[in-house]
Amino acid sequence: MQSKPQLIAWLTCDGVHIDPSSGKHTILGIFSNIHGHKFPIVHPFMIWFLSITDCAPGEHRLKISMGFNNANPEQLLQRPFKSHSPMDRINLINEIRNLPFPAPGEYALLIEIDEEPLLGTSIVVTANPIPPTN
Prior knowledge:
Layout: E1 6-13, E2 15-18, E3 25-28, E4 33-36, E5 41-53, E6 58-68, E7 74-83, E8 90-101, E9 105-113, E10 116-127
Parallel strand pairs: 4-10
Antiparallel strand pairs: 1-5, 2-3, 5-8, 6-7, 6-9, 9-10
């Protein structure tokens, strides 16, 4: 019986640096919500970082979908990756550019591997009043 992939980490951040000598990942600017002053907004750049283990050897497919206020999620990303052993820890760095948010609210995210759900989570987008100018 094959094991199901296990999620070690899911982070939304500004960047990931990989040290060329050690291979260590440094996560930069972790965040869990987005603020906007005037909607719709477009978030110019973020990274969705996943670390997984227990993937059977071979080719796999990561898929990430997003829906507004529990609406039908639309696929944002699909990419292949490879596992050499279930003992591998696989870090997947996914660059997300120009992601639109039409309104404040909760945006549901569904992360799947090989069409099987791995994680359901969300990004909260809030409306902030425009800061006063002096």
